[in-house]
Design goal:
10 helices; 29% strand; 4-stranded mixed beta sheet; 5-stranded mixed beta sheet; 15 strands; alpha+beta; binds acetyl coenzyme *A
C-alpha cells in the first residue's frame, strides 16, 4: 500500500445486449414519430430490447463473464460483486443471483441504485473497498432493462431508451490507475425524472391503513434534464480532473453516459474536447441507463480504440438527480 492506500486498476471489461433490435422506422408503428425526428434530436437509430425469455440477471451475467475473462481471473477470485441497476429482476436484489450464476461463492454481492449515474457511482464505491485494502478483486456491473418501465404510448420518452449490460473488473494493483472522482446529487429536482411508486390506501384492519401499489412508467421533463446535463456534467468533469491533477487536453477519451448525442456534443464543446476523443455508440443502443458507460467502454476496448494507459474521464448523470465523474487510466 502507498500513502493513499492500495493502488487500483481496471483490468477487464465485458458487455451483453439482447438479440432483439427495434429501429426508428418500426418504432414509428407504435407512436407517431419518425427516424428523422429521433435521429436529429437524439442521434439514436435503434435499440436492443429484452425479449420475453431475457432477464436482467442473464445479460448481466454474460457481461460479467466477458469482463472476468478479459481480466484473466476466475470467478472464485472475486471478493465483491456490485450490481448498479434500477431494474432488478427482484426488488430485494439481483446481484446474489448473478453471484450464483457466475460461481463466485467467496464474493459478497449487492445491488445499488443511482439510475444512469449507477456505473460511475459504482466505480467509486468499488474503488473505496480496494483503496482501504479490504478487497482485491471487485466485479462491477451496470445493467438495465428500462423497456419494462417505459410508457410505450409516450413518444417523448419511449424513443430514448434501450436495454443492455456492461461490466468491469477492478483489481488491487501496484501502480494506481484510478486517479480521481467527484460525485453530486440534488434531490430538489427529483420530480424531473422518475420511475415512481404509486399506491392506493388499503385498510388492513380498523385504524390501520397502508399503501399498496406498483411502480409507474418513466416520466421525464426532457428540457429540464437537457439543461441539467449540459450545465452540471462539464462542471463535475472539471472537478474530477482537478482532483486527478490532469487538464482536459491530457485526456484521451471522454466517456459520457450515452443519453443523447446533442448532450455529448454540447458537453465536449464546453470542455473543448475534440469530437474524435468522444466515445459514442448510442446510435445502435439508445440510452441503456447504468449499462451505457461500460457498454461503450467495452466496445472501444475490444475495437482497439482504447489502449493500455489511455486516460479516460467517465461521467454519468440522471435520475435522483445524480451526476458524477471518475478519471482513470485503462489497464494495469
Ligand atoms: N417524435 C416526434 N415528435 C416528438 C417526439 C417524437 N419522438 N417527442 C416529442 N415530440 C414533439 C413534441 O410533442 C413537441 O411537439 P409540440 O411542439 O407540437 O408539442 C415537439 O416534438 C418538441 O418537443 P420537446 O419535448 O420540446 O422536444 P425537445 O426539443 O426538448 O427534445 C428530447 C426532446 C430529445 C427528449 C430533449 O428534451 C432531450 O434530449 N432531453 C434530455 C433527455 C435525456 O437525455 N434524458 C435521459 C438522460 S438522464 C437518464 O439517462 C436517465
Amino acid at each position: 500500500m502507498n500513502q493513499l492506500g492500495a493502488g487500483i486498476a481496471i483490468t477487464g471489461s465485458g458487455s451483453a445486449t439482447p438479440d432483439v433490435t427495434l429501429d426508428n422506422d418500426r418504432l414509428s408503428q407504435i407512436v407517431e414519430t419518425s427516424d428523422e425526428w429521433i435521429a436529429s434530436r437524439t442521434g439514436i437509430r435503434e435499440r436492443h430490447l429484452a425479449d420475453v425469455q431475457d432477464s436482467l440477471s442473464a445479460i448481466a451475467t454474460q457481461a460479467a463473464q466477458n469482463a472476468i475473462a478479459m481480466a484473466g481471473i476466475a470467478p472464485t477470485d472475486l471478493d465483491l460483486i456490485l450490481l448498479a441497476t434500477s431494474t432488478p429482476d427482484d426488488l430485494f436484489g439481483t446481484a446474489c443471483k448473478i453471484q450464483a450464476a457466475l460461481g463466485a461463492p467467496q464474493a459478497v454481492a449487492f445491488d445499488m441504485t443511482a439510475a444512469c449515474s449507477g456505473f460511475v457511482f459504482g466505480l467509486v464505491t468499488a474503488a473505496q473497498f480496494i483503496r482501504t485494502g479490504t478487497y482485491k478483486n471487485v466485479l462491477l456491473i451496470g445493467a438495465d432493462i428500462l423497456s419494462r418501465w417505459v410508457d410505450w404510448s409516450d413518444r417523448r420518452t419511449c424513443v430514448l431508451f434501450g436495454d443492455g449490460a456492461g461490466a468491469v473488473v477492478l483489481q488491487a494493483n501496484e501502480s494506481d490507475r484510478f486517479l480521481g472522482f467527484e460525485l453530486r446529487s440534488d434531490g430538489t429536482l427529483n420530480k424531473s425524472l422518475q420511475l415512481a411508486y404509486d399506491s392506493q390506501p388499503t385498510e388492513l384492519v380498523d385504524g390501520i391503513t397502508i399503501n399498496q401499489g406498483t411502480y409507474q412508467p418513466i416520466t421525464m421533463n426532457g428540457k429540464e434534464i437537457y439543461r441539467f446535463a449540459v450545465q452540471k456534467v462539464p462542471e463535475v468533469i472539471e472537478k474530477a480532473l482537478f482532483r486527478s491533477n490532469l487538464t482536459t487536453n491530457q485526456i484521451d477519451w471522454l466517456l459520457l453516459h450515452q443519453a443523447n448525442q446533442r448532450i455529448l456534443d454540447a458537453v465536449a464543446e464546453r470542455l473543448k474536447i475534440p469530437g474524435e476523443k468522444v466515445l459514442s455508440n448510442l446510435a445502435r443502443y439508445g440510452n441503456t441507463s447504468a449499462a451505457s458507460i461500460p457498454l461503450a467502454l467495452d466496445e472501444a476496448v475490444r475495437e482497439g480504440k482504447i489502449k493500455s494507459g489511455d486516460a479516460i474521464v467517465a461521467s454519468g448523470f440522471g435520475a435522483g438527480l445524480t451526476w458524477g465523474a471518475a478519471v482513470f487510466q485503462w489497464g494495469k
